[in-house]
Amino acid sequence: MQQSFDLFFASSNSHKYQEAKKILDLFGIKLGFFKSDLEEIQSNSLKDIASKKAKDAFSKCKKPVIIEDDGLFINSLNGFPGPYSSYVFKTIGNKGILDLLKNNRNAKFVSIITYYDKNFLESFDGKLDGTISKYQKGKGWGYDPIFIPKNSKKTFAELNDKNELSHRYKALKKFSNWYLHK
Ligand code: ITT
User: Fold this and answer.
1) What is the number of domains present in the chain?
2) Which of 15, 94, 148, 153 is the most interior residue, by most CB within 10 Å?
3) Residue ranges making up the domain that contains 114
4) Residue 2 lies in a domain
5) Gap between the Cα atoms of 126 and 16, Å rounded
6) pLDDT by residue (tens digit) across 26-37?
7) Residue 86 Cα to ligand 1 middle (Å)
8) CATH number for the domain including 152?
9) What are the pLDDT digits (tens) for 114-141?
10) Which segments within the chain are labelled E, that is strand?
11) For 76, which DSSP code?
12) In this structure, are residues 65 and 11 in contact, taking their beta carbons and an 8 Å threshold?
């Protein structure tokens, strides 16, 4: 039986979709997956990248879409990898990041959720402060084994309640509030 969805999450990354789906379920929004490699412009602004990606996604999906652009910003590296987080993960990975860090390990995860349906183009952000661990801990995707959210001793990969506090949760909560009242 075919399920009906309120909107689609366009991304090449199924981990992001699985988490976004669980979060939007809490707000009563049914999220489908539109698996797609989206065009990503080079820019220092996650919001600009996300807006372009959302329009590209809509032109392919032809249904209301959200896309998400994330960045891990490390203080002692002047915000690197930031908008280049995806590329950096694929090239040097978590080990490469750990090798670059010394004492100051403060960082933040940022999520931009952008919605597009031809009438609306809206973006919502979620930010979460934390630190980068000394070693990889736990089994998780992406930067989960090295990111320790503020007020926690565990990495994202070791936490059971990541979806209740993540950068993604914060951005999707703002999005839901707007979407359900628009
Ligand atoms: P898209 O097709 O949606 O663009 P992507 O994986 O390229 O997928 P981003 O550019 O938004 O997505 O992601 C930047 C990087 O940050 C990417 O390497 C992710 O693995 C990583 N990342 C984002 N959110 C994360 C999270 O909650 N936990 C661990 N890593 C995360």
Assistant:
1) 1
2) 148
3) 7-179
4) no
5) 14
6) 999 999 999 999
7) 6
8) 3.90.950.10
9) 999 989 999 999 999 999 999 999 999 9
10) 7-11, 31-35, 65-74, 81-82, 106-116, 121-132, 147-149
11) G
12) no
